[in-house]
Amino acid sequence: MSENRRDATFFMTATTQFGLEEVLAQELRDLGAKIEKVGQRAIEFTGTKQLLYEANLWCRTAVRILKPFAGFYARDEKALYREVGRIDWQDYIRPDQTFAITAVVNKSSFEHSLYVAQLTKDAIVDQFRNRTGSRPSVDVKNPDIRLHLHMIENDVVLSLDASGDSLHRRGYRQQTNVAPLNEALAAGIILLTGWDGKKPFIDPMCGSGTLLTEAALIAQRIAPGLYHQGKFSFQNWADFDQQLWDSVVMDARSARIEESQAYIAGSDLSREYIELARENVAAADLEDYIRLGVRDVKDAQAPKNEPAGIVVSNPPYGERIGEEAQMEALYKTIGDTLKTGFQGYDAYLFTGNLEAAKRVGLKASRRIPLFNGPIDCRLLKYELYQGTRKVSKPE
Prior knowledge:
By secondary structure, the chain is of the alpha/beta class. It is built from 10 helices and 15 strands. It has helices at about 20-30, 50-60, 75-85, 115-130, 185-195, 210-220, 240-255, 270-285, 325-340, 355, and strands at about 10-15, 35-40, 40-45, 65-75, 100-105, 135-140, 145-150, 155-160, 200-205, 265-270, 290-295, 310-315, 345-350, 365-370, 375-385.
């Protein structure tokens, strides 16, 4: 098949989180992808098999890389079963492999995505049983082959999921504090700041250190997919090219810069969180690039003998009842610290508590909408001028 050629191009889709679409599109462009469409939480693009492998290895803000292979209209259950049955599934799944189907259904006469997934599974299994007398098994937790079905207004697109486990699960994170920032979102926040990977990067409320770790990966040019646990799903595909994959991995390993590129430091009031951060940083083999310390945010300040850089932090949101006053006091303290300790810096606060953020006492020059799980958040940029301009009216 011509598609097995390394230089053949085909369509792919990369999924991401709301608000990170343009960031991911740029990541893909940097890898050589031709962007066809920037949609909501998804980028459609074309490229080669090498690009598919590199996208899984290098994209910091991607959740999954999908390879569409079939599309059809299904007005009802019979039509869905029939159309799925027309695909030659032995091209994609061996009888001795396990598989799973994720279905996403929007604006369709089919009401339940689980039912659509079940019907699709039945059509696949029945085809194998009728043709060979044996059938692949379903494994929803760790399948060899992951299929993705997207139905919108009864138009169906079936894709192979190239990634397997979500790409945000880097594999370096040993354990986290109660409300962790996922790694793809943390990387997206950093990339949205436009940080150059050279200036100082400070997080004075670093929790378990996800922002710091992702910053170090960017600065040292380390592919996040190198931490991936187990196989990527594309390694189980019939057309998997081991030699090409080995070459892509070798190139990624050699791209790493060993010499420290930026002053990256974080602190937190909680000794327990700093210990968690140390464990995560050690698991990522980044101890040489990240400084950690126990410190109250009110005592945080810019490092001496370093040029002005950026402060990036994800302070608590205070989601429990009765925490409003506590949060307002915390955000006022954050604002005071930024004004007195980080003049000349740009500061970015990622928060889901916009009321408390008003107590920072600085006017945000940018407000970028994002989500942390289900929580509606904003990435707020504050320009901390030297001298008299550092304090402006609260929002």
